[in-house]
Amino acid sequence: LYTTAGGALAIVIAAAVWRGLAFTTLLSLGALQTVPQEIIESASLDGANRSQRFFRVILPQIRPTVLVIVLLTSIQSINSVGLIFSITRGGPGGATRTAAYYLLQTGWE
Questions:
Q1: CA–CA separation, 78 vs 73, rounded Å?
Q2: Could you read off the pLDDT of 36-64 as tens digits, one per residue?
Q3: By CB neighbour count within 10 A (0-12 exposed, 13-18 middle, 19+ buried), where does 88 fall?
Q4: 3-class SS at 96?
Q5: Contact present, 98 and 80 (Cβ < 8 Å)
Q6: What is the spatial distance between Cα 92 and Cα 109, in angstroms, rounded to a whole number?
Q7: FRET pair for 25, CA 20 to 30 Å: which of 10, 16, 18, 62?
Q8: CA geometry: angle at 86 spanning 82 and 90, to 5°?
Q9: What is the pTM of this model?
Protein backbone atom coordinates (compact mmCIF):
# COMPACT_ATOMS: atom_id res chain seq x y z
CA LEU A 1 0.00 0.00 0.00
CA TYR A 2 2.89 2.37 0.63
CA THR A 3 4.15 2.07 -2.93
CA THR A 4 1.10 3.58 -4.63
CA ALA A 5 -0.09 7.15 -4.22
CA GLY A 6 -3.66 6.12 -3.46
CA GLY A 7 -2.60 3.52 -0.93
CA ALA A 8 -0.30 5.89 0.93
CA LEU A 9 -2.99 8.55 1.00
CA ALA A 10 -5.53 6.02 2.30
CA ILE A 11 -3.16 5.00 5.09
CA VAL A 12 -2.58 8.61 6.14
CA ILE A 13 -6.32 9.36 6.06
CA ALA A 14 -7.11 6.24 8.10
CA ALA A 15 -4.49 7.16 10.71
CA ALA A 16 -5.78 10.74 10.95
CA VAL A 17 -9.37 9.57 11.34
CA TRP A 18 -8.33 7.05 13.98
CA ARG A 19 -6.43 9.75 15.87
CA GLY A 20 -9.32 12.23 15.95
CA LEU A 21 -12.36 9.97 16.10
CA ALA A 22 -12.60 9.53 19.87
CA PHE A 23 -12.43 13.24 20.68
CA THR A 24 -14.94 14.12 17.97
CA THR A 25 -17.28 11.37 19.14
CA LEU A 26 -17.15 12.58 22.74
CA LEU A 27 -17.88 16.17 21.74
CA SER A 28 -20.78 15.05 19.52
CA LEU A 29 -22.23 12.82 22.21
CA GLY A 30 -22.01 15.60 24.78
CA ALA A 31 -23.76 18.01 22.43
CA LEU A 32 -26.53 15.54 21.61
CA GLN A 33 -27.17 14.92 25.30
CA THR A 34 -27.80 18.64 25.86
CA VAL A 35 -30.74 18.73 23.45
CA PRO A 36 -33.95 18.72 25.52
CA GLN A 37 -35.99 15.59 24.94
CA GLU A 38 -39.21 17.61 25.13
CA ILE A 39 -38.56 19.51 21.91
CA ILE A 40 -37.72 16.30 20.07
CA GLU A 41 -40.94 14.71 21.31
CA SER A 42 -42.99 17.78 20.39
CA ALA A 43 -41.50 17.79 16.88
CA SER A 44 -42.41 14.13 16.59
CA LEU A 45 -45.97 14.84 17.72
CA ASP A 46 -46.18 17.66 15.18
CA GLY A 47 -45.47 15.10 12.44
CA ALA A 48 -41.77 15.58 11.79
CA ASN A 49 -39.97 12.51 10.49
CA ARG A 50 -36.46 11.51 11.60
CA SER A 51 -34.58 13.63 9.07
CA GLN A 52 -36.75 16.67 9.74
CA ARG A 53 -36.22 16.27 13.49
CA PHE A 54 -32.48 16.09 12.98
CA PHE A 55 -32.06 18.95 10.51
CA ARG A 56 -34.71 21.31 11.89
CA VAL A 57 -34.62 20.59 15.63
CA ILE A 58 -31.43 18.84 16.74
CA LEU A 59 -28.85 20.38 14.40
CA PRO A 60 -29.74 24.00 15.24
CA GLN A 61 -29.40 23.09 18.93
CA ILE A 62 -25.92 21.59 18.51
CA ARG A 63 -24.63 23.99 15.83
CA PRO A 64 -22.07 25.71 18.13
CA THR A 65 -20.52 22.35 19.01
CA VAL A 66 -20.48 21.31 15.35
CA LEU A 67 -18.64 24.52 14.49
CA VAL A 68 -16.09 23.86 17.25
CA ILE A 69 -15.60 20.31 15.95
CA VAL A 70 -15.05 21.61 12.40
CA LEU A 71 -12.59 24.22 13.66
CA LEU A 72 -10.61 21.77 15.79
CA THR A 73 -10.56 19.15 13.03
CA SER A 74 -9.30 21.75 10.56
CA ILE A 75 -6.52 22.79 12.93
CA GLN A 76 -5.62 19.16 13.53
CA SER A 77 -5.44 18.46 9.80
CA ILE A 78 -3.14 21.44 9.28
CA ASN A 79 -0.94 20.17 12.11
CA SER A 80 -0.76 16.66 10.68
CA VAL A 81 2.84 17.16 9.59
CA GLY A 82 4.17 14.78 12.23
CA LEU A 83 1.73 12.07 11.23
CA ILE A 84 2.56 12.38 7.54
CA PHE A 85 6.30 12.55 8.20
CA SER A 86 6.28 9.49 10.44
CA ILE A 87 4.20 7.35 8.08
CA THR A 88 5.16 8.29 4.51
CA ARG A 89 7.57 11.27 4.59
CA GLY A 90 5.38 12.90 1.93
CA GLY A 91 5.92 10.10 -0.52
CA PRO A 92 5.36 8.31 -3.01
CA GLY A 93 5.78 11.09 -5.49
CA GLY A 94 4.49 13.71 -3.05
CA ALA A 95 1.03 12.13 -2.85
CA THR A 96 0.70 12.81 0.87
CA ARG A 97 2.52 16.14 0.91
CA THR A 98 0.42 18.93 2.41
CA ALA A 99 1.09 22.66 2.47
CA ALA A 100 2.27 22.49 6.08
CA TYR A 101 4.57 19.57 5.25
CA TYR A 102 5.96 21.49 2.27
CA LEU A 103 6.66 24.54 4.45
CA LEU A 104 8.42 22.36 7.00
CA GLN A 105 10.47 20.64 4.31
CA THR A 106 11.54 23.86 2.58
CA GLY A 107 12.24 25.56 5.89
CA TRP A 108 14.80 22.90 6.86
CA GLU A 109 16.63 23.01 3.54
A1: 9
A2: 999 999 999 999 999 999 999 999 999 99
A3: buried
A4: coil
A5: yes
A6: 20
A7: 10
A8: 85
A9: 0.75
